[in-house]
Amino acid sequence: MGYGLEIAERTGASLVGIDFSVEALRQADAQPQRRGMAATCKVGDVTATGLDRHRAHAVVCVDAMQFAAPRQPDKTNCDESPHREDGSC
After folding, report:
1. Is residue 80 part of a domain?
2. CA 20 to 30 Å from 34, out of 27, 48, 69, 84?
3. In the chain, how many domains are there?
């Protein structure tokens, strides 16, 4: 929660920390209280946050993208020949 807490403290934003590790969340849970702040911790990952759609105004992602499954190219609007090496348009 380090970077998120700093941003929330400076801006007055509310903070929801999401991690796939219950242990990481357990350790992070005490940090806001030590700074006199409130924050919510939730188990989730970058593809399944558990947040309602349109819930976040901003997202900070630290040390998480390497754990995300590779995305398949979106071919919904492709013509016969793809425009990029990965097959996306």
Report:
1. no
2. 48
3. 1
* pLDDT for the residue numbered 64: 76
- Rounded CA-CA distance 80/18 in Å is 40
Residue ranges of the chain whose pLDDT lies below 70: 74-89
Tokens standing for residue 25: 């969340």
Q: How far is CA 71 from CA 39, 68, 84, in A?
A: 30, 8, 14
- The alpha carbon of residue 67 and the mean position of all alpha carbons in its chain are separated, in whole angstroms, by 11
Residues 22 and 75: their CA atoms lie apart, in Å, by: 36
Q: Tell whether 28 is covered by a domain.
A: yes
Q: Is residue 25 part of a domain?
A: yes
Q: Tokens standing for 19?
A: 């991690």
- The boundaries of the domain holding residue 30 are 2-47+57-66
Do the domain assignments include residue 88? no
